[in-house]
Sequence to fold (398 residues):
Amino acid sequence: MKWFRNTARVFRQEWKVMLTDPGLILFFVALPLMYPIVYTLIYNPEQVRKIEVAVVDDCRSQESRELVRQASASPAFALYGYASNMSEAKDWWAEQKVYAILHIPYDYGKKINQMEQAHATMYTDMSLLLRYRALMSAMSSIQMKLASDITTERIQALGAESLGVGMPVQTVSHFLGDTQQGFASFVIPGIVVLIMQQSLILGVGLLGGTARERRRKNFGYDPLGVNDAGALAQVWGKALAYTIFYIPVAIYILHYVPEFFHLPHYGNPVDYLLLMFPLLLASAFLGQLAVIMIWEREFVFLVVVFTSLIFLFLSGLTWPRYSMSPFWLTIGDFVPATWGIEGFIRINSNAATLAENARCYIALWLQVLVYSFLAAMVWKYMVTKERAKFTSSPATAQ
Fold:
């Protein structure tokens, strides 16, 4: 009962500290409210369209004109113009007037009419993978359409009218979760979870660094803290205060942002909110654990900036986790956002249930337990060391 009373005292006192700290309000409210909006606006529209393409047509036949017509009808292509040769097309490319070159060789139509395999070459700019992906996807669809039409014409020319209907095998794609195959629908559900973790660590580290400054000025004691509470009561009271304070912001990020921008949003809100609760707790404890590296209030920016890209790569958003080496896979398992992103995407985009994400849910609660004990040990070590620094020096204490 004493532990619960001390935890409640720390909880109430930390609320007072949070409400009077403008920096924390910025990181716990303004940052998570604005970042998802800014990120989603940047990644909208979902796909890259109307990419300027130069055509070098050395064939000048009906077949080559049909290929260009099919390409220009695709949403991904915007025909910039016909270049007289590859040299002129490369000049356009160097001037960034075009981002791809479609070269049709002189024997393209001849080979098609002789029932041989014809070739057309597409050169694409890979400086932006979204452009490359859109062009290659569109070109593959055009290739399949032309192959179907040419095959049909050849079969009909042989008199087999009943067989001249398309390709023998029809390919139909059904995209689960990201029905539009858009970049925002793919990356934003994971990014918002990472934003929640990082803003929590940023705010907790800011408060922790400020508390260390106060203790240095007051002989190892924090005038705005509950100094007689135990280490576990300290870290749990603070973590619960941060988590409960953050819950309304989490509801806004996870529920309303996808609805505002028509992103995938199929799961049960109760399921992903229950999943996010241990993520917020684990992030709060991880922030308190990181305080050992934060001597002053401003040091938290160095910690968060250094870890943001690392956490992004480890989450599996930029590179699939199943392709990582065992070392990096293990490191990623210790990051709360890794499990939060995996579970939230399954629930939000694929309508999975919390029971189907039991692995992620259990992993987050295990992190809560481990990080809470580690944070308590770190808090006890820091406070004991800071107080011993003053008590060991009689002149300073006097």
Q: What stands out?
A: The longest strand covers residues 51-57. The chain has a mean pLDDT of 85. The chain has two domains: 2-43+182-397, 51-163.
